[in-house]
Amino acid sequence: MKKWVYLFGEVAAAEKYAGSWEGVRSLLGGKGAGLFDMTRAGVPVPPGFTVTTEACNEFRKTGKFPAGQWDQQLAAMKKVEKATGKKFGDPKNPLLVSCRSGAKFSMPGMMNTVLNIGLNDAVVEGLTKLTSNPRFAWDSYRRLIEMFGETVFNLDDEVFEHPMAQYKEQKGYKLDTEMTAEDWKELVSIFKAAFKKNLGFDFPQDVYKQLEQATKAVFESWMGKRAIAYRKKEEISDDLGTAVNIVTMVFGNMGDDSGTGVAFTRNPSTGDMEMMGEYLINAQGEDVVAGIRNAEPIVNLQKEMPKAYKEFMQITGRLEKHYKDVQDVEFTIERGKLWMLQTRNAKRTAKAAVKIAVDMANKGLITREQAVQRVTPDNVDSLLHPQFDIEAMNSAEKNGTFFAKGVNASPGAAVGQVYFDADKAEQMAKEEKQDTIMVRPFTKPDDVHGMIASQGVLTSEGGATSHAAVVARQFGIPCIVGASAIKIDLERRVMTVGESTVKEGDWISVDGTTGKVFIGKIPTMAPSLEEQTELLTLLKWADDISAKKDVREARAPGYPTRGLQVWANADYPKDARRARSYGAVGIGLCRTEHMFFEPERLPIVQDMILSETSQGRTEALNKLLPYQRKDFDGLFEAMDGYPVIIRLIDPPLHEFMPDEEKLLEEVITMRVKNESDGLKDKEELLAAIKGMHESNPMMGMRGVRLSIYMPEIVEMQVRAIFEAAADCTLRGIVVKPEVMIPLTGTVKELEWIQPRLERIASAVMKEKNVKFEYKFGTMIEIPRAAVTAAEVAGHAQFFSFGTNDLTQMTYGYSRDDAERNFLITYQEQGILETNPFQTIDRGGVGKLMDWAITEGRKTRPSLEVGICGEHGGDPNSIEWCHLIGNNYVSCSPFRVPIARLAAAQAALKHRPQKQASFVKSKANGRASKATPKIAKKPAKRK
Length: 942
Ligand code: ADP
Ligand code: MG
Ligand code: MG
Hints:
The chain is of the alpha/beta class. The chain contains 41 helices and 33 strands. An 8-stranded mixed β-sheet has the order 14-24-23-16-17-18-19-15. α1 packs antiparallel against α2, α14 (350-362) crosses α21 and α26 (614-638) runs parallel beside α30. It binds adenosine-5'-diphosphate and magnesium ion (MG) (2 copies).
């Protein structure tokens, strides 16, 4: 016969059956496992037993308890009776129990618990005699009837709350504490009548019936609407089921020497090392959380009940040590005696998560590696997001510019001008370069373009799982939903809350972190990393982990000789300095286009483009050279000692030219008005621009194609790079320039262009009589380049995956069109699991990358490989880069800290197992082949 029921003492049997502690948690639920563990450790836990999640899953299939469960439950009750010396249903010395839900992952408030099971008309009299405390006995009984009706038979809480409020009003009572024994007794009759009236039958007097029905109700609560919705949001599988914990009741409502409370072993919002909690004297169960009376801070317990307090502090200290994590505990004191009712790892803010992890590692409670694993990349992200200046926000609230509050659906601070539809928001953002906030009653898939273009999103309807919320979180846009006080008038283009009105175009500030909306602009600040000492420490540990050489190095020549590094994409020296301060150890992408756009340079660039001869072009370019040299000089200086990858010109030339339509308009106007001054120039310019027209510029003459068509530009760029590098070297700066050729599709392109550029490099070094390290390499962003990587690596000394273009070209999507038109639908329909522009598509794009690295290193074992697309800052994509053997990832400076943590976590997660298995897997092919397979998807909780 299968064992469906385990006594709290039977932890060894549970462990044996489940195989591991993780297994025990699945079998007995988190709450159950905690109770078993505390029992084993000698912590005072009231005797009890747990019905397994397996029984729940059987019950869900058949609608009945599985064979043997009920008998085992009865047998367990006998054991509990023996342990407590009490008897279930016996008025002379009654045992009462609670029946508590508890799944593997805590789902606060999502499922049901019934307290005081075992009371009936006879037992309540017995309990009165036994305790000489009629008030307590009748109070407990009315609680049972109420909870039983609500949780077992789904009665509305109004059924009981209403008559109780009425009764108190009649008596002129304000607080529950004013109720006397007689009052509670009276109320029991009222509750019983209400029970019968609503259900058509009496409250069950058979205590075993109570136990059976409560057990069933807990099982059923697993499939309750709230529970299902919560699991969906948290990605918890529906198949886990809940356990049922039957626990001997202990009473915090037996008088002034009794009480109940909840506490965190450390402050869960700041992480400070101070116990934080609350308790209530003469109260039961949920009273503290329900806020019926004002609870006392836990420190006061020291004075009120010194003995219980001392024991409590000692036990919670032990629990924290045992679980090596901050605990969230429930306790009850019955006539001075302390009982622990629950312990679990506490939920915490990002700030607390970092502080706690670092503190615990410093104290030796956990290792540094564990500390690094305790904090999520999202935690780091939220610590670095721009936030509203708290003081400014407080004073705004005082000054009456507070507008409304809604659900804080996606964190971050956004300031912008209000627009009431997606098209307008996008237009103002794109054409007028405004910061916009899109405001709608709710959003639909065809609003997404407006959301993406905006700084923030605000809706008056919907909750945390509404379309607006989901999309905003996905794109990292600060968002508030369901701010129901706001009335939006789409006709008049205004929104109002009471007297205050916001018109279209007005500025507002939206705080996605707190859900508050303000009228006007509130200053934001980028939190500085220097002040976050714990975070700095944690990131330093992360770097140490990433830098550890792994076994691949010794075994598989050509594999990275170190862990994954984090570089940054930076175009300007100030970005480079920020990147370094955030811990980047290289520049993975410096785009040079913007260097042509600066106002004093653009006319020269246009002259250059319009020249008909190579000589004319060279003359214009010679004027640009000093500018470019200066740009690079600043970068090299900022990155002293670290590699800097500079990408040669990439976009098509027409991007540097005036807008064709505007120019046409001007020409026509001049013709109509008969103005001849400068008309000819304009006409020529127009003709030139027309000549450059491409029907699909994204796939037209850009990147290396442009360089081959017009090599003078990149020749100038390379000269500027090497002259700057030489100058810096002479000033004592260590430079490591790497020249990157974009958009290679065939090695023949490199064969054509690279030697010309390398000749310039050597010439400059000779002229200046200096030597320094340098590399020439290419971006891999066209599938053909990835496929033919073995050939490409014959010329390229490094690869950098431009995963934005590589994704576009592998899928054949244009990113803008995809995100605007069909990506959300594709995700809703399950055609795409994630946005491939955010997270690398391992099955397609990722495979190409893997292949390119393998093939490339066959030709050139020392090939340096990185990634410079936006994916370089995405933790899941970083894991992939680690698995396929990248040397570094490069991302925006602001994401560098996130990437540092993610890189270390990938290294820890996939740290090489024993050498023996490594050798075996290598025999089947390439060493790392085995690993990518294991990790096809981010680990999801099952
Ligand atoms: P939740 O998972 O919602 O916290 P619990 O099962 O922990 O629900 O119980 C709800 C409340 O009842 C908690 O405050 C808990 O401490 C209290 N409680 C549960 N079982 C007992 C018991 N046997 N004796 C006294 N209080 C109990
Ligand atoms: Mg609880
Ligand atoms: Mg590109």
